[in-house]
Amino acid sequence: MENTSQLDPNVELNFLKRCAVGSFMVGLLFFHRVIEDVVYQWFNDEVWAQGLYALIFVTFFIYMIVAVVKTLNVNVSRQAYWFGNFHDEYLHYVSNQAHKYCLGVLGITLLGAFIGADFITEALPSLDLKDFISLIFSVISFSYSITVWYLLRADND
Amino acid sequence: MIEYQLENNLAKYRRKRDLSQQDLADAIGVSRKTISTVETGRFTPSVVIALKLAVYFDVNVEQLFELESTA
Known about the structure:
heterodimer; A: mainly alpha; B: globular
């Protein structure tokens, strides 16, 4: 990490992209925890399908580790690294928007869960508190990464 | 109430100088995404970037950016 104010915007861009990938993978990890049992039930006796699912998950998990390690080695400012305050204006805007949407989606999810708490408890009796927290983590992670990807979508030159 | 929309001639000035978005981004020290999103109107830049662009193209800010009423 550097403290200088003259930073290469491409370094910041790569850092933000890696954060989005890392966040998406964390989301998958938590989401996997919730849907794991359901998936295994779908493929009841199909060992190959369970193996395929496990292989896909392990591949994603390794990719996540690589993305996180790469992010740790990047030369961005402390402000960008810890608080999402990027030197580049558009990247700063993207980071802010992603956090804003993340908070909005989290609020809507929690409100929906609060309103439908009785229904959820009846419909999914096996859903425990850890599963619910995992689901919330995955919602947070997915909303952050999808917002970043959407705002950094390809455009013409 | 009159509503305004920000229009810009950035792409026009950039093409006049035969510059790519990356060239312009490097020249004023921002990311290519900043230039491309300003050009397409998806992002409104700060006064600092507007002034940097005006200085780079040697024009007034008003020649690069203008407000058009939509009402």
